[in-house]
Amino acid sequence: xxxxxEVDRSAFRRLMARWATGVSVVTARAGDRxxxxxxxxxxxxxxxxxxxxxxxxxxxxxxxxxxRSRRFGVSFLAADQKPLSDRFASTIPSPEKxxxxxxxxxxxxxxxxxxxxxxxxCRVASMTPxxxxxxxxxxxxxQELGRDAPPLLFYRSTYAEAEGPDRLxxxxxxx
Length: 175
Fold this sequence. Notes:
This protein is an alpha+beta fold. It has one domain (about 20-150): Roll (Pnp Oxidase, Chain A), CATH 2.30.110. The chain is about 15% helix and about 45% strand. It has 4 helices and 14 strands. It has a 7-stranded antiparallel sheet. Strand 2 (about 25-30) and strand 3 form a beta hairpin. The longest helix is centred in the N-terminal third of the chain and has 8 residues, at about 10-15. The radius of gyration is 17 Å and the shape is globular.
């Protein structure tokens, strides 16, 4: 039929690994349940009104909390917070993810992680299904500036490392 050739998924994954991203934890609360997960699919959408987009997989336990509450938080991780990223990326139940983790409640009760570069509280503006993800656009209703530190970055399927307050080392490109 002359259409474009099918994209090899393994090659696509390797290519996307070359795109360096920041690491954040998206949190939600509905009723008395907290949820959270690590995401690197995050972007600023607009300054007027201030809004952001996060991409959540349909199989995470945080998505139903966002759908019910129509609210979510985003905590931006610092380079020394890799253990938090790993914890919230794990498949353990959300209550376990928060056990022993320092966090505070935002104005709407959203859990926001302590010691981060900053955090946002958002009200859902739209939710758009996209294959095995949902693209969630949120209008920022509150922000907090955290500490001044190097960011946690993800590149080539691993983390960048801080070499000082103003310098990060990314993994070598390999063969």
